[in-house]
Amino acid sequence: MRILLMTPFLTIGGADRLNLDVVRQLTGRRFRFSVVATLPHAHEWRPLFESITPDVVTLHPMIAPEQQPAFVRDLIRSRDIQALLISNSQFGYVLLPYLRRHCPDVVVLDLLHAVEPHWLDGGYPQLSLQQRAWIDLSITVSGDLHDWMIARGGDPERIVVSPAAIDVNVWNPAHFDRATIRQASGMPLDLPLILSVGRLAPEKRPRLAMRILRDVAQRGVPFSALIIGEGPERPVLERMLHDPVLRNVRLTGALPPERVREALAAADLLLLPSAREGIAIVLYEAMAMGVVPVAADVGGQRELVTPDCGILVPPSGDETTAYAAAIIGLLTDPTQRAAMGARARQRIVDHFRLDLMGDRMEAFMRHAVEHSARAGRTIPTPEEAERSAIEAIQLARQARNVARLWETGGYAGDIDLSPARRAALRIVRSARKHLRPWYRRLAAHDDSRLRRGVLTVRDWVVRWVYRA
To answer: Are strands 107-112 and 137-140 parallel, antiparallel or unpaired?
Structure first.
């Protein structure tokens, strides 16, 4: 079976990690993949996808927005694509009526990761529901997300659950020597090690993680900690680390997967107080390495982290105190900590191995194809298909122009603009540079109105500067 994966980015992150695992697992089962990345980006993980399939295309800047719908249609036809898998691509969802009209025999599936309450009233799961007339099967990574979609009108017959998974042979603490890793990284050998791993962005709440660690330290419980990740919150965390009570806490920046794996091999606890998640990939990684998670009870995380192998903290009340109490209890009871870590790894081995996920995904793909062949297909009208293509072109133009708006390495791409618009660009780019730290501080409080307001202004500027 030949599958086209449509995704916005090929970059570091949980969604792309799952996409990569799906492509690798199904390729090993004689599926063949083509991959289309739909948004402008550096696409740092493109080589990883190309190591599995050479057929990887990035729409920007290769394909003009006006040509992108027809390009995707022709790619489906030329590659003899049998199934389209959409993962977090707004462009892909919008284009579905056009593709169904012109490629009526192609089975459509989507892979859904998490609800995004501050974008489009739910994010990609809401887009999936809006376009469900053209989707044969939706695959969610958690029962919590499955139930969210059913409660909002989704068809229970066409929404299934396939949790993420991990390679338990690669993520195996038996392959590592804790003492050697700690010595190489300069971490104390005699102190429990806490990790916090993830993008340093407001939704991951790294400031809360730092306050929790400070609370634990102030109560006189010894530990060391590494904060692994990069993002807009880093300057704030660096200032917080000036507190002498946090002398055993270090920021490492972003690390490649092999370095994260080494850090987890040397760790005892994982701290993950996110504001929202589907099920964080780092939880699978930590549990596979025998590390006990202390994480937020959000999304579907309780489907992975059970009370015998980790602690989940509800996102309400005095969270700092609740997290600190959970951590202190584990730090001061090494026997319980070791037992929970062993059970955490066993849970991954028993239920969340990559081969099990591959079996599920293969079964869902084949089920969707068989069901689609039996069921009647609704075909969009020519007018619906045309509207779909127009909206997709508008999205592609907007994505291109937003990328142009923030270019700062010169104005070669803006030579077609009037002097007034080029002057406006200089002002906008300068204002962004100076105001961005303040915006990040305010946005860290999850002020959705501020975010929407900033995006509204940005989009107005884009339309004015780059209007035809």
So the answer is: parallel
Cis peptide before 61 (omega within 30 of 0): yes
pLDDT digits (tens, 9 = 90+) for 120-149: 889 999 999 999 999 999 999 999 999 999
From-to residues of CATH 3.40.50.2000 in the chain: 2-165+355-393, 173-349
- Distances from the Cα of 453 to the Cα of 439, 457, 460, angstroms: 11, 6, 11
Give the predicted TM-score (pTM) of the model. Answer: 0.86
In whole angstroms, what is the distance from residue 198 CA to residue 200 CA?
6
CA end-to-end span of the chain: 42
Give the domain 173-349 fold.
Rossmann fold (3.40.50)
Cα–Cα dist 35/52, whole Å: 11
Residue 145's pLDDT is: 96
| Cross-strand bridge partners of residue 159 | 138
Using DSSP, state whether 255 is helix, strand or coil.
coil
**Phi, psi (5° rounding) for residue 155?**
-85, 115
Q: Rounded to 5 degrees, what are φ and ψ at 464?
A: -70, -45
Bridge partners, residue 224, by sequence: 193
CATH architecture of 2-165+355-393: 3-Layer(aba) Sandwich (3.40)
Q: What is the pLDDT of residues 235-288, one digit of tens each?
A: 999 999 999 999 999 999 988 889 999 999 999 999 999 998 889 999 999 999
Question: Mapping DSSP to helix (H, G, I), strand (E, B) and coil, where does residue 320 land?
Answer: helix
Single out the residue of 456, 357, 461 nearest to residue 406, CA to CA.
Answer: 461
| Other Cβ atoms within 10 Å of 212 Cβ, number | 27
Residue in the block written with tokens 């309780």: 302
